[in-house]
Specification:
- By secondary structure, the protein is an alpha/beta fold.
- Helix content is 43%, strand content 12%.
- The chain is built from 13 helices and 11 strands.
- It has a 7-stranded mixed sheet, with helices on both faces. Strands 3-4 form a two-stranded antiparallel ribbon. It has a two-stranded parallel sheet with strand order 8-9.
- α5 (169-182) packs antiparallel against α6 (184-194), α8 packs across α9 and α10 (265-283) packs across α11 (288-294).
- The longest helix is centred in the C-terminal third of the chain and has 19 residues, at 265-283.
- The protein starts with 10 loop residues before the first strand and ends in a 16-residue tail after the last helix.
Length: 339
């Protein structure tokens, strides 16, 4: 299990190369760079890792000086990949190889915006779900037909590989990674210092074809309901219950919820319950009935049916596969490949 999954993520590597987007670089640096220990945020070691030493040109006349080589990725707990300003530009083969090696060691790799093209070029996204800016999604799908490209979510994870949509969703993904590793309070403290919202779920729609709800109170109420539901996944939840939290009728709530997230409350809950179950199977030895209960399924049978339909494996088979050692021989201190 990679360090980030057990709350010990400290060493963060930015993969830098000529032409990376300055905004993405700034987001990563702002989340993991400052010392916020006085607010209860753990200290991070953030390094800019490049193929070669020396100044790197960035768009807009800026330059960046890396402080580590690609070999530092071997010591990182998390690797973050900014997008190139021109997504079609190639990435040097040694950089792609370093990303493959990091992922092979079980280190989570996160790409912001068009950084998904870099992971795709490395062959890491084949057969996996991925997201990029909605404008670039058709281009990514056409260039790499083996990738399941989604154009709605803000960010998605598949097999330890994280991708995010455009621009501001990179902030959401970075804060989510902090939240997953160190808890909601650490992520909220960072968000406060950045004067940004602390919580947008990955399935929040990138953009809407229909007008957004006029009242800010509605959007805030829906966000609060989603946050409360995520804390209460183990409890019986219905659309009526969630609508009551928002102070709406079930019908009005379902309409506003779909407008904000692009999906129904039932499908949203099911997706998050399945994700919670996956984590429990990967990270605990709870029996399958207990996993089903903690993830909020009414029965073990219902859980098995939904899990098998969604994942393609039964819960026990999935646990066995996720706990199996990596096939490639490694020294004894190697980390098993993350699920």
């Amino acid at each position: 299990m990679a360090d980030w999954q057990t709350g010990r993520m400290r060493r963060v590597a930015i993969v830098v190369q000529p032409g990376i987007r300055s905004f993405d670089l700034a987001v990563i640096t702002e989340v993991w760079g400052p010392d916020r220990s006085r607010t209860g945020v753990p200290g991070f070691e953030l390094r800019r890792c490049a193929l070669e030493p020396g100044p790197i040109p960035l768009p807009g006349g800026l330059t960046l000086t890396p402080d580590r080589g690609l070999d530092w990725l071997a010591t990182a707990d998390l690797v973050v990949v900014p997008a190139l300003d021109e997504p079609a530009d190639p990435t040097p083969a040694p950089v792609l190889a370093a990303l493959r090696e990091a992922h092979g060691r079980g280190v989570p790799v996160a790409a912001l915006c068009a950084g998904a093209f870099i992971l795709a070029e490395a062959g890491l996204l084949e057969g996996r779900r991925a997201v990029t800016h909605w404008w670039l999604a058709p281009q990514l799908a056409a260039r790499y037909p083996g990738i399941v490209v989604e154009d709605a979510p803000l960010y998605v994870e598949d097999g330890g590989l994280w991708t995010s949509a455009g621009v501001a969703s990179g902030i959401d993904l970075c804060l989510h990674l902090v939240r997953e590793a160190h808890g909601a309070e650490a992520a909220a403290a960072i968000a406060r210092s950045m004067v940004t919202g602390p919580f947008r779920t990955g399935d929040h729609a990138q953009y809407l074809d229909r007008p957004v709800p006029a009242a800010d109170r509605t959007a805030e109420a829906l966000a609060a309901v989603r946050a409360r539901a995520l804390r209460s996944l183990h409890e019986p939840l219905s659309v009526g219950t969630m609508a009551g939290w928002a102070g709406m009728s079930p019908r009005s709530f379902a309409r506003h919820f779909a407008a904000a997230t692009g999906t129904t409350p039932h499908r949203w809950l099911l997706g998050h319950r399945l994700n919670a179950a996956r984590k429990l199977l990967e990270r605990t030895d709870h029996p399958v009935p207990e996993v089903a209960r903690r993830a909020g399924f009414a029965s073990e049978v219902t859980f098995r049916q939904h899990f098998t339909a969604h994942v393609g494996l039964g819960p026990r088979a999935y646990r066995a596969a996720s706990c199996a050692p990596a096939a490639a021989p490694n020294p004894p201190d190697s980390v098993r490949k993350g699920s």
